[in-house]
Structure formats: C-alpha cells, structure tokens
C-alpha cells in the first residue's frame, strides 16, 4: 500500500540522500537562507513565506505524501560523517513530474550549498539518485534542464552521462522573467527494470 512506503535513504561514500520529516524544517530553512543569493537567480520565484518554519513543516509533510503516491520524490543531501538526526542540509534534489505508463520518465532538479561547490558532492549524490530512479523506481528516462550560462550544472550532467537534446526558448520563469534552457536527458542502462 502506498501509505506504507518507507522513507528513502541513499548512502554514498560521503553523503546521505534522504527525505526529511516535518521536524527537519529548521535544517531546510537554514540551507535555503544561507543560499538565498546563490540559488535565487537560478530558481523560480519563491512564495513570500518560503523561508519560514511553518512553510517547510507543511512542505516536508506534503513531500512525504507525494512520494507515497508516486507523484514526486524530493530529498535533501546530508554529510554522512554527521548524525542523520542533526546533520546540516548541504543540497536538495527533486524528482518531479513522474509519468508512468509507456513513458516512465521524471524531471530532475537540484541545488548545492555554495560552501560545498567544487568537491564533486553533487555528482556523487546525483549518481545515487539516478541509480535509485532506474532500479527501485523503475523509471526509464530522467530529464534535466539548465540555464545556458550555468556551466557548473552542465558539467555535472555531462559527467553523469546526460545527453543534450535541445534548446528551449522562454522555457521557465526565473527571477521574474522567462529564461531559455538547455534540455538534457539520461536513459536507463540496457536491462534496467521498468515499472508498468
């Protein structure tokens, strides 16, 4: 039954990628506050109450519900060396717009704390998430899009094997205006399980 679905916890050499319950709201707020200037210019406009505990308690509860019913999977990245219950959030990763049936696809989004850039952490975390999407979730295709000038994001996707599929004009409204995006995707390796 969907409501009995366990919380996802992926472990890599240096990281834990997991869902947080509502009591993790303070850690999420701290992450987004510390990265307001860093992530803001590449993210859709945030609601007015985005940086509040009340918003994130509700949002984290909704994220768990959405995962239970296979609508999306939103996770945070935590340093593995620190206790799971108190480790700071250093990144966020989302698998949204899950489409089943003959498509078996999902959209990937992510952000990394500016203080942790250049260490290969996002590549490490996304490698685990993509493997989870193709095996446990049985998806066939992961789509990821980035601003043309976001060279760091482009490099991460290239390292993971994402292929450029096109250029979309006025694709997403970011920072108050419509922005072009590079469209990429990664297809499941041959022989991967596919959900029905």
Automatic annotation (TrEMBL):
<dbReference type="GO" id="GO:0005737">
    <property type="term" value="C:cytoplasm"/>
</dbReference>
<dbReference type="InterPro" id="IPR000182">
    <property type="entry name" value="GNAT_dom"/>
</dbReference>
<dbReference type="InterPro" id="IPR051531">
    <property type="entry name" value="N-acetyltransferase"/>
</dbReference>
<keyword id="KW-0012">Acyltransferase</keyword>
<feature type="domain" description="N-acetyltransferase">
    <location>
        <begin position="64"/>
        <end position="162"/>
    </location>
</feature>
<dbReference type="Pfam" id="PF13302">
    <property type="entry name" value="Acetyltransf_3"/>
</dbReference>
<keyword id="KW-0808">Transferase</keyword>
<protein>
    <submittedName>
        <fullName>GNAT family N-acetyltransferase</fullName>
    </submittedName>
</protein>
<dbReference type="GO" id="GO:0008999">
    <property type="term" value="F:protein-N-terminal-alanine acetyltransferase activity"/>
</dbReference>
<comment type="similarity">
    <text>Belongs to the acetyltransferase family. RimJ subfamily.</text>
</comment>
<dbReference type="InterPro" id="IPR016181">
    <property type="entry name" value="Acyl_CoA_acyltransferase"/>
</dbReference>
């Amino acid at each position: 039954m969907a409501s009995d679905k366990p919380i996802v916890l992926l472990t890599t050499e240096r990281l834990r990628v997991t869902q947080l319950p509502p009591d993790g709201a303070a850690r999420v707020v701290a992450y987004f506050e510390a990265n307001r200037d860093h992530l803001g210019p590449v993210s859709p406009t945030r609601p007015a109450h985005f940086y509040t505990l009340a918003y994130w308690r509700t949002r984290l509860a909704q994220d768990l519900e959405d995962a239970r019913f296979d609508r999306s999977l939103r996770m945070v990245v935590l340093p593995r060396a620190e206790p799971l219950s108190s480790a700071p959030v250093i990144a966020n990763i989302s698998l949204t717009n899950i489409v089943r049936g003959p498509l078996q696809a999902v959209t990937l989004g992510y952000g990394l704390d500016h203080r942790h850039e250049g260490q290969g952490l996002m590549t490490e975390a996304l490698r685990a998430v993509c493997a989870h999407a193709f095996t446990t979730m049985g998806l066939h295709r992961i789509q990821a899009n980035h601003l043309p000038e976001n060279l760091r994001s482009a490099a991460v996707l290239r390292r993971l094997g994402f292929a450029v599929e096109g250029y979309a004009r006025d694709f997403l409204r970011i920072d108050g205006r419509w922005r072009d995006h590079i469209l990429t995707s990664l297809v499941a390796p041959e022989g991967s399980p596919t959900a029905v």
